[in-house]
Design a protein that fits this description.
The complex is a heterodimer.
Chain A lengths: L1 H36 L4 H6 L11 H7 L2 H34 L5 H12 L4 H14 L5 H25 L3 H9 L4 H12 L1 H17 L2 H6 L7 H8 L7 H21 L4 H5 L7
Helix pairs in contact in A: 1-13, 3-13, 4-7, 4-10, 4-12, 5-7, 7-10, 8-9, 12-13
Chain B lengths: L2 H10 L3 H28 L2 E2 L10 E2 L3 H7 L2 H32 L6 H7 L2 H4 L2 H11 L6 H8 L11 H28 L4 H9 L4 H29 L3 H7 L10 H10 L4 H26 L2 H8 L2
Antiparallel strand pairs in B: 1-2
The chains are: A mainly alpha, B mainly alpha.
């Protein structure tokens, strides 16, 4: 009797394991085919020939890495990502500190407003940003698009940091205050070093937000500040469907995202829904 | 130190201090968020051609909003957008829930499955759109290649209005159901095991436990997930743009895509701004609902032990 039940449980577990792996394979197929096609030539992909090991080549990577426009766009994406992350983490950390360490009137309302700001649709802002940037002459500049990315990254970082900051023991700051440190000095020299892990986590996610962004880049950049997402999309433009190059370029963009994602596994839920989920 | 003492200590600081810390964020948010929103509201009251000079802008009051309500393309995009939300998200929830139940046990490789399942969520949206576009290509696309090898006639999926719309939705389901799984699995592991064991000892079967314990305990998380996904789906743009550009015709012209087309192809910035404000209000309603339901600064701080 007991044995029978045990066997049934085992059989059920095996069945579930098999189902899980099949679902996983199906789910990862689109990603797999992207990674694979990066190592095949455009003509082979377009011919519809089934995959053989002999097709593997670095040709598409060579073409993409020799493509000056794409390289320039990658560099732009990197610079814009770093700039908007730097702005957002600095301004966001200060604001987050202000919210978590001071009790002022309207504190809750302010914090919740930042959370709502994070969820506003970009298309609602992009038209007026376009007109504003055109008037100011900062359309299609690294500065302009970095600032636009800060519009979602500042509220994002504030809410990413709040739980980290709330967890820092106040006694360090109090000790520093007794020693005559200014509030400003306490923040930069005592508080930030303690809260460094939170800063790193939110910086990584802010960078990924900027790295993946498409709509602002499409509208607010042209030739000079074009980002990698726009360049990858551009590889598909015109009559030539260069799937091999698109996949190679896409893989290059994907690698840092997946590496960071795996490294930050513990913080994924927080990262993806900053502020939207308790704890 | 108790909370009250902490508060009293904080009050002693000069009132200017929090403002000093908040200023940079407030300035940025004002410049690239609040001001543009106010500006959009103003623009939406004008007949405002994109590239023409100031002389050709005319105040039309609520004219753009009235025109929108009579624009069949606008209602088409609203319909497509709502369909997208009401079809994709419930399926994502169901799949995520089923997977969370299924994977809430240990078997060989369970941890690997749970981790790798999340990869699509972090796949770049534009790459997702491109990959699905590739898979649905005629002749050499994997789906059609499969159909041909089975002797079934192939199909130009993205050339067919209905199929293109279905494809856009399937793409979203594929990418985001693991997100629901991630949320629900985390909530599921938080249900005390003793509770379920006690119910089992009392003779409650699998379905009974599911109905009386698991589902009720997960409802708050499900609501959160739904709201997060709705807010996200309201602003979907890039993956659909690279997949179909709203086509064929306007078969997949979701709300954001139509707004963008209105502004930058038709060059009617006033109309587009009216759409932008409409979407903004809708998003704020959902976002405020989520925040009110779910977010408490005090809970967050107590949890963190601050």
């Amino acid at each position: 009797m007991m044995n029978n039940q045990k066997t049934r449980r085992l059989a059920l577990n095996v069945l579930i394991a098999i189902t899980a792996f099949v679902v996983l394979l199906l789910e990862l197929y689109p990603i797999g085919i992207t990674l694979l096609n990066g190592f095949r030539r455009d003509v082979i992909i377009l011919s519809g020939k089934p995959f053989e090991l002999g097709q593997l080549t670095f040709r598409s990577y060579q073409l993409v890495l020799g493509n000056r426009q794409f390289l320039a766009a990658m560099r732009n994406s990197l610079v814009i990502g770093l700039a908007s992350t730097a702005i957002s983490v600095l301004a966001g950390a200060m604001a987050s500190y202000g919210i978590s360490r001071f009790h002022f009137r309207g504190r809750n309302a302010l914090a919740y407003s930042f959370l709502v700001f994070r969820m506003l649709p970009q298309v609602s802002l992009v038209i007026s940003l376009y007109i504003m940037f055109r008037t100011l002459g900062i359309r299609d500049t690294i500065f302009g698009i970095s600032l636009a990315h800060a519009s979602f990254n500042v509220p994002y970082v504030i809410w990413m940091l709040l739980p980290f900051f709330a967890a820092v023991d106040r006694s360090y700051e109090e000790a520093a205050e007794v020693d005559g440190c200014s509030r400003f000095g306490i923040f930069f020299r005592v508080f930030l070093p303690i809260a460094a892990p939170g800063l790193v986590v939110s910086a990584v996610f802010a960078f990924i937000n900027s790295w993946n962004e498409f709509l602002y880049a499409l509208i607010l950049t042209g030739v000079n500040a074009k980002t990698a997402t726009i360049a990858v999309n551009g590889l598909l433009g015109g009559d030539s469907l260069t799937w091999g190059q698109v996949c190679a370029a896409g893989t290059i963009m994907l690698v840092p995202v997946f590496v960071f994602t795996v490294a930050m596994q513990r913080f994924l839920i927080r990262g993806i829904s900053a502020g939207g989920v308790k704890g | 130190m108790t909370k009250g003492e902490a508060r009293r200590r904080d009050v002693r600081h000069r009132p200017a201090a929090p403002l000093f810390f908040l200023a940079p964020a407030l300035i940025i948010v004002f410049a690239v968020l609040i001001y543009p929103i106010c500006f959009s509201i103003v623009v939406s009251l004008f007949d405002w051609p994109l590239s023409a000079g100031a002389g050709e802008r005319h105040f039309v009051g609520f004219g753009n909003y009235v025109d929108l309500s009579a624009d069949p393309e606008f209602w088409n995009s609203v319909k497509l957008q709502l369909g997208f939300i009401f079809i994709a998200i419930p399926i994502e929830l169901l799949l995520g829930f089923a997977a969370a139940l299924l994977l809430n046990r240990e078997f060989f490789g369970a941890k690997i499955v749970r981790t790798l399942l999340l990869l699509p969520v972090f796949f770049l949206p534009i790459l997702s759109g491109m990959t699905w576009r590739f898979m649905l290509q005629p002749r050499y696309g994997p789906l059609n290649a499969l159909l041909i090898s089975l002797g079934v006639p192939e199909m130009t999926w993205l050339g067919n209005p209905l199929m293109a719309y279905v494809a856009v939705i399937v793409q979203d389901i594929w990418r985001m159901w693991p997100f629901m799984f991630m949320l629900l699995y985390a909530a599921l592991t938080n249900i005390p095991a003793e509770m379920l064991e006690a119910a089992e000892i009392d003779g409650a079967g699998f379905w009974r436990r599911l109905r009386s314990i698991t589902v009720p305990m997960l409802v708050p998380t499900m609501l959160t997930g739904l709201l997060l996904r709705i807010i996200d789906a309201l602003r979907v743009f890039s993956e659909v743009y690279v997949m179909t550009e709203g086509g064929p015709g306007n078969a997949t012209l979701l709300f954001s895509l139509y707004t963008q087309r209105q502004a930058f192809s038709y060059q009617k910035v006033g109309m587009a701004s009216a759409m932008a404000i409409f979407l903004l209000i809708l998003s704020i309603v959902f976002a405020v609902t989520l925040v009110r339901k779910n977010m408490s600064l005090d809970v967050l701080e107590e949890k963190a032990g601050g």
